[in-house]
Amino acid sequence: MYRSKDFTLMDVINVNGKKLGFINDLLVDFYMKKIIGFSIAPYGLLKKTLNVLIEDVVSFNSVMVITKTTSADFLQFKSIKDMDVRDEKGNILGMVEDIIFDKMSFKISSLVVSMGFITNFLSGKKIILIKDILIGEESLLFNGRSENLSFCSLPHKLFTEDDLNEKS
Fold first, then answer.
1. Which of 64, 151, 157, 158 has the most crowded CB, counting CB atoms within 10 A?
2. Which residues form a coiled coil (predicted)?
3. Is residue 166 part of a domain?
4. E strand spans, 18-158
């Protein structure tokens, strides 16, 4: 699984070796529940932001190599990042912090929701499945039906004892 931070600030070059800029955001399609490309911030001051679609990416590791760019407009992850996530009763569950998607298909699997620094430290961040999210203009609606299942991300080292060997 990838997160948005795995691609942010990655250098982008074309197949001829020309440096185009760096990735500053992900392009998302919530209808298809998929990452469809990347937004590229150019190195020059007066140049326009470019977009590259997944099908135009040749390879990526520490540098992304692409065949072509487009100037079409797409929904960017930064437009939903820091949006409130609310339940069906209107209660705020937290704010969108990150997005998690599949390495091969780029299908979005879930969103990481932050509930504040202290709550994150004590009980972890929430992981909300994308199938339970509806996007709105000002917030995201969580319509999860399962009360028995709750995903969260906890700091691993804080909750393990030093003397225990997990592999034995």
1. 64
2. none
3. no
4. 19-29, 34-42, 50-53, 57-60, 63-66, 84-86, 92-101, 108-114, 125-129, 133-135, 139-142, 151-153
Q: What are the Cα distances from residue 92, in Å, to 83, 86, 88, 131? A: 10, 4, 10, 18
Q: What is the CATH number of the domain that holds 13?
A: 2.30.30.240
Q: What is the pTM of this model?
A: 0.80
Helices and strands (H, E) in the chain, number of each type: 1, 14
Same domain, 84 and 150: yes
Contacts 24+ apart (CB under 8 A), 110-119: 110/151, 111/85, 111/140, 112/3, 112/153, 113/85
Q: How far apart are CA 154 and CA 123, in angstroms?
A: 7
Q: How far is CA 122 from CA 99, 154, 158, in A?
A: 22, 8, 10
Q: Residues 53-76: pLDDT tens digits?
A: 999 999 998 899 999 999 889 999
* Largest CA-CA distance found in the chain, in angstroms, rounded: 59
For 96, left (φ over 0), alpha (ψ -120 to 50), or beta? beta
